[in-house]
Write a structure and sequence with these properties.
It is a single-pass type I membrane protein. It comes from Suillus luteus UH-Slu-Lm8-n1. One of its GO terms (biological process) is fungal-type cell wall biogenesis. It is a single chain. With 282 residues, the protein is an alpha/beta fold. It has one domain (22-228). Helix content is 47%, strand content 16%. The protein contains 10 helices and 6 strands. A 6-stranded mixed sheet has the order 3-1-6-2-5-4, sandwiched between helices. The longest helix is centred in the C-terminal third of the chain and has 47 residues, at 235-281.
Amino acid sequence: MAGRAAILALFPVVGVLGYSDTVPIVAWSSKSSSTLNSLSPDLRYEDSLSIVGGILSPEDICSFDAVLVIDQPGLRSSDLRALPTSSGLSTILNTTPSSRQYPHVKRSTSFSLQDITESLARRCSSTLTNTSPADGPLDLTKNSKHVVCLNMPAMEGSPKLRKVAMLGYDQYLSSEIEKIDAAFTSHLVLYTGSPLEHYRRQLLPPSKFDSAYAPPDNSTLSDGGIFKRYQLFSTPLLVALLVVFFIIVPIIMMAVSALASLQSSVRLDAPKGYHAQEKKTQ
């Protein structure tokens, strides 16, 4: 029983080991993009810097009138997967001509969306805009090219809180993307996460946007999501499972067996001592 409890306690750890150093990357365009179409749907061995660079570095990226790069600290693939199929982002992805979705990408230590967007704006002679939901709606000048780096609030808290918060962010993002689509028929959107430890939300004063989407006490949420067609067992998770079941579990079972044998030995020794003493008294 003790061994079984110890094994069951390891499953939450497996999830952390498998996905703690990964970020999701989703990209799509309003027109058919040879860059997105040429990317392999399976880039499990590439890191975030390589994939983002593969999307934003090719020359044809400058053919877009607007490039929106969304950075959300702490974002997980499960946050996007939890979105209902009727959500704004899911609807946009289902109707876009070109898109790529990578749920678990190894996070690069040298990854900086700020540097990437600055370099892209210089290369394409575009206007660079750094903004956040607290700054209000996007206001982009028509008849000129734009690169927008949208810094979203960090994703933290329990799964229930994250799910409710994500619905609010989905509503905001889909609304802003629709405005961009109306003003710039040629645009590309890249949505990804970044390390949470660099952007601790409690260090920043709460904004009106945060309070507007405070999670309610009781909410009924639909199932479905952006990454729901992807399998949950990625390479990092499988490696973690192998380590647990072939190394950690045998060690735990040996320890439990040793403890059980010691307890059995103590129980067997006690009756022998008792009978010997009884015989001596007689």
